Amino acid sequence: MVKKTTKHSNTWLLLLSCAMFLLASCATTMSRENAVEERAKARWETLLAGDLDGAYEFLSPGFRSSVSSLQYQRSLLLKRIRWDDAQVIESECEETTCIVRISLDYTLHGALPGVSSFSGTQKYEESWLLVNGSWYFVPEK
User: Fold this and answer.
1) Distance (Å, rounded) from C-alpha 124 to C-alpha 126?
2) Which domains does the chain have, with CATH numbers?
3) Residue 37: other Cβ atoms inside 10 A
4) What is the CA radius of gyration of the chain?
5) pLDDT tens, 47-106?
């Protein structure tokens, strides 16, 4: 009887260990997705508040090495679009990259002859990159 109990105990411990490993794997993935979604949300809150200098800090180091803060701000200010709201929908992550899906409410000014502005909502995908433990937005060129 002692051997049976030990055998069942070993089986139970093995199953418990596997379950803990799987939970730890899920927790790592979820924390990665949660972290990048929080960064994306913070970036959009910064943009919506009009803090373009602050928004520049969310850009990847590689992008910032080739585009100055002033150049970035100027490119945003020259657009005829105004973002009114942004909601993070979901993200899909791999080890060091994530795609974050955003729902954007916007107003487009002077886009059509005779129409002063047009408002709408669009789903948008952003690329994010993990660099030295922090997530950064990688804009399309």
Assistant:
1) 7
2) 31-138 (3.10.450.50)
3) 21
4) 23
5) 999 999 999 999 999 999 999 999 999 999 998 889 999 999 999 999 999 999 999 999
